[in-house]
């Protein structure tokens, strides 16, 4: 329970906001680890392009985790940044692709971003009335994450504008569909 918070915000609202932000903090920590995992496991003809495309996003997402953790502290709560917190907070499965081609990883990563961006948008909707400052932080982050998803999708997009992974409901299925096109 928060004993102090930002001026003009009730402690009850702050508790609600920090609860939402803790889940997003764990999601961001999971995402930058997943991105490094892809950076290390990508193989094949497009290795260097994808390997190098991933690292700036890792740095961006690590920075976003820092911003969210410090927002939680600013609002009077304690951010949990441990591996255990990620495991406790997450409602999704561990990234499931190991050593694989650039196409396979990008197909799977598109699904990772589908889940992440949808949840960040949900957090924007939930925090909008409670704390517009937090909402503003989440909006800025989401815009950049959506842009990176476009980078990912451009690799699995056909010249007619369709995703080769369309309809895939698991990372494994998306990886398989993306791999089959190359
Ligand atoms: Fe590296």
UniProtKB/TrEMBL annotation:
Pfam families: Ferritin. Coiled coil: none annotated. GO terms for molecular function: ferric iron binding; oxidoreductase activity, acting on metal ions. PROSITE patterns: DPS_1. Residues 20-157 form the Ferritin/DPS domain. Gene3D superfamilies: 1.20.1260.10. It comes from the Bacteria. Belongs to the Dps family. This is Ferritin Dps family protein.
């Amino acid at each position: 329970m928060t004993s102090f918070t930002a001026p003009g915000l009730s402690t009850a609202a702050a508790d609600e906001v920090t609860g939402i932000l803790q889940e997003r903090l764990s999601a961001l920590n999971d995402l930058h680890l997943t991105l490094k995992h892809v950076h290390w496991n990508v193989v094949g003809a497009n290795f260097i392009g994808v390997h190098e495309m991933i690292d700036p996003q890792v740095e961006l997402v690590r920075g976003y985790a820092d911003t969210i953790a410090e927002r939680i502290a600013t609002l009077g709560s304690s951010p949990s940044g441990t591996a255990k917190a990620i495991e406790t907070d997450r409602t999704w499965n561990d990234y499931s692709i190991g050593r694989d081609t650039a196409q396979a990883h990008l197909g799977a990563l598109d699904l990772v971003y589908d889940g992440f961006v949808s949840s960040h948008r949900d957090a924007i909707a939930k925090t909008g009335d409670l704390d517009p400052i937090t909402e503003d932080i989440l909006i800025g982050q989401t815009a950049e994450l959506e842009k990176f998803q476009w980078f990912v999708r451009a690799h699995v997009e056909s010249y007619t504008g369709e995703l080769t992974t369309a309809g895939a409901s698991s990372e494994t299925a998306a990886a398989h569909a993306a791999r089959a096109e190359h």
